[in-house]
Amino acid sequence: MIQIKKFTFNPVQENTFVLYDETGECAIIDAGCFFENERKELDNFIAANQLKPVKLINTHCHFDHIMGVTHCRTKYHLQFEIHPAETALVEQAAEHGDLFGIPMEPVDAPDSFFQEGDRISFGNSYLQIIGAPGHSPGGVVFYNPDQKILIAGDVLFYGSIGRTDLSGGSFIKLVGNIKTKLLTLPEETVVYCGHGPETTIGFEKKNNPFLT
Prior knowledge:
Blueprint: E1 3-9, E2 14-20, E3 25-29, H1 36-48, E4 52-57, H2 69-76, E5 80-82, H3 87-91, H4 93-99, E6 112-113, E7 119-122, E8 125-131, E9 140-144, E10 149-153, E11 156-157, E12 160-161, H5 171-182, E13 190-193, E14 199-200, H6 201-207
Parallel strand pairs: 3-4, 4-5, 5-6, 10-13
Antiparallel strand pairs: 1-2, 2-3, 7-8, 8-9, 9-10, 11-12, 13-14
């Protein structure tokens, strides 16, 4: 059974997730730890729970979601896996950080890629990859149908959706993907967002002003 630990990191208050199961293997999603105390918080949790990181994956690659990638790659000897359409955002991360007044070191190119329809496996668990571009060119969400868990990145928020005014964004694409690919999931699906609190598919279907 998948368990989820959420961390809120960096000046943009981004949510980083560690998903793990009874085997102790875990996946780190959207590693955003920026400050030294944040890196220690992540590492201490992994050590205290005797976890073994085996996956380093991202829903998308805006700078605030990859601030901790270099640390996790180095410490846990992980490959950084993304959708190929997000590669340019990795290359531009330091530049984008500067635009927001947050200096950060460049992040090396991804090691491997996944596509919509692929599965990410760790321990006895897996996540399905659902493509949902619109907030970013190659944004995805990670879904486990057995437990009805959705790691949504910045695609869908509690009562809102991801911004679409950044490079590669498209309001039409984003809303279309949410309506056809996310809102068709079971209403009890718990949505873990890239910023802010959790929500459910059912709540967003009824209450999200961008989708009703």
